[in-house]
Specification:
The structure is a single chain. By secondary structure, the chain is an alpha/beta fold. The protein has a single domain, classed as P-loop containing nucleotide triphosphate hydrolases (Rossmann fold), CATH 3.40.50. About 60% of the residues lie in helices and about 10% in strands. The protein contains nine helices and five strands. The radius of gyration is 16 Å and the shape is globular. The chain starts with a strand and ends in a 5-residue tail after the last helix. Bound molecules: adenosine monophosphate. Adenosine monophosphate (AMP) binds next to α2 and α3.
C-alpha cells in the first residue's frame, strides 16, 4: 500500500508518518529528511539546496524526483511507502504516478491533514524554539506556507479527480489525528483494488 500524507508545513505529516512506520512496517519517504541528511553529510547536493531550504522555497522537481526514484525499490520491498512532503508540485505528482505505474504500483490514498493557519503558526513557533530548524523562523515559514498554497494545494483537484483524496481533521492531539488516520485507512483497505 502506498500512502501520501498531504498538508501544509507543520501539519503533523512527519509525526503521523513515523507512527504509521512503527505500526505497519512501511517506509517513510520524506524528501525534507533526505535533503536535510544530504546537508548534514556535507554533499554537493546538500550545499546546492541549503540556501533554498533555509529561505523556505521549493528545491527543483528534478532533485526530489530523483531522490524518490532511488528510494522506491526499498519501500516496495517493505510493503509500501508513506510519502511525506512529496509530491509538492503537479510535475512531482505526475512523475510519481509514472514511476509507480512503471513498477506496477500506484498511490492508494492521499490523506489530507487539515490544520488552520493560526494553529500551524503556533506549532512552528514551538518547534523553532525546541529544535531551531532554520526554516521554521517566521519569515521562512511565511514563504513555505505561500509555496504550499501556490504550488502544492493545486494537487488537491488532481487527487480528488483520481478519487484518492481523504480529508483528516489535523487540529486535534497526535493520538486523535492518528485515530482518524486509522479509520480512513480501514475504509481504504476494504475497497477492492487497494493493497
Ligand atoms: P519539509 O521537511 O518537508 O518541510 O521540507 C523542508 C524543505 O525541503 C522545504 O521547505 C523545501 O525547501 C525542501 N523540500 C522538501 N520536500 C520537497 C519537495 N517535494 N519539493 C521541493 N522542495 C522540497
Amino acid at each position: 500500500m502506498n500512502i501520501v500524507l498531504f498538508g501544509p508545513p507543520a501539519a503533523g505529516k512527519g509525526t503521523q508518518a513515523k507512527r504509521l512506520v512503527d505500526q505497519r512496517g512501511m517506509v517513510q519517504l520524506s524528501t525534507g529528511d533526505m535533503l536535510r541528511a544530504a546537508r548534514s553529510s556535507g554533499s554537493e547536493l546538500g550545499d546546492r539546496v541549503a540556501g533554498i531550504m533555509d529561505r523556505g522555497e521549493l528545491v527543483s522537481d528534478a532533485i526530489v524526483i530523483a531522490l524518490i526514484e532511488e528510494a522506491l525499490p526499498a519501500a516496495e520491498a517493505a510493503g509500501g511507502a508513506i510519502f511525506d512532503g512529496f509530491p509538492r508540485t503537479i510535475a512531482q505528482a505526475e512523475a510519481l504516478d509514472d514511476l509507480l505505474a512503471q513498477r506496477g504500483s500506484k498511490i492508494d490514498v492521499v490523506l489530507r491533514l487539515k490544520v488552520d493557519d493560526d494553529a500551524l503558526l503556533a506549532r512552528v513557533t514551538k518547534r523553532f524554539g525546541e529544535q531551531g530548524r532554520a526554516d521554521d523562523n517566521p519569515e521562512s515559514f511565511k514563504v513555505r506556507l505561500a509555496a504550499y498554497n501556490a504550488q502544492t494545494a493545486p494537487l488537491l483537484p488532481h487527487y480528488m479527480a483520481q478519487g484518492k483524496l481523504v480529508e483528516v481533521d489535523g487540529m486535534g492531539a497526535i493520538d486523535a489525528v492518528a485515530g482518524e488516520i486509522e479509520a480512513a485507512l480501514a475504509v481504504v483497505n476494504k475497497t477492492p483494488g487497494a493493497r
